[in-house]
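yo

u said u wanted the structure for the complex thing, so here. seqs first:
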Amino acid sequence: MANDRDERIRAEVQTVPAGYVTTYGAVARRVGGCTARMVGAAMASLPDGSGIPWHRVINGQGRISVPGGAGHRQRQLLEAEGVAFDLRGRVNLTVFGWGNADEILDMFDPPTA
DNA sequence: CGTTTGACTTTCG
DNA sequence: ACGAAAGCCAAAC
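structre next:
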């Protein structure tokens, strides 16, 4: 069983729709009271098949931060959802970044509100 | 209880 | 644009 903070992080990640990505920092900022590293730690501790779209969470540089084969798997999952990677293996957060759009959508229609 | 580590971010060269 | 260094905070040692 996880802590309340981890649950909030998971809930926030759940709000990211397929075809979009968010960043650790954006999630941390939205959850509040936690940092980007904690979001990463929360994802790392997720059990397999938890139903959490952990693959939609990448770092602020639009790059995969997941080590090992899981990283390659994450990229495949995102491409399957329509997220495009450039030649350097980076995602354009201006286009696919849900975390980037949160401030814009904030004055429109907050996903959690 | 001090030290090390990490699925991060930002700044500097 | 890229790599290195520092900053951060909690969990693991």
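Helices of chain A lie at 4-14, 24-31, 36-44, 69-80, 93-96, 98-106. Confidence is low (pLDDT under 50) at residues 102-113 of chain A.
cya
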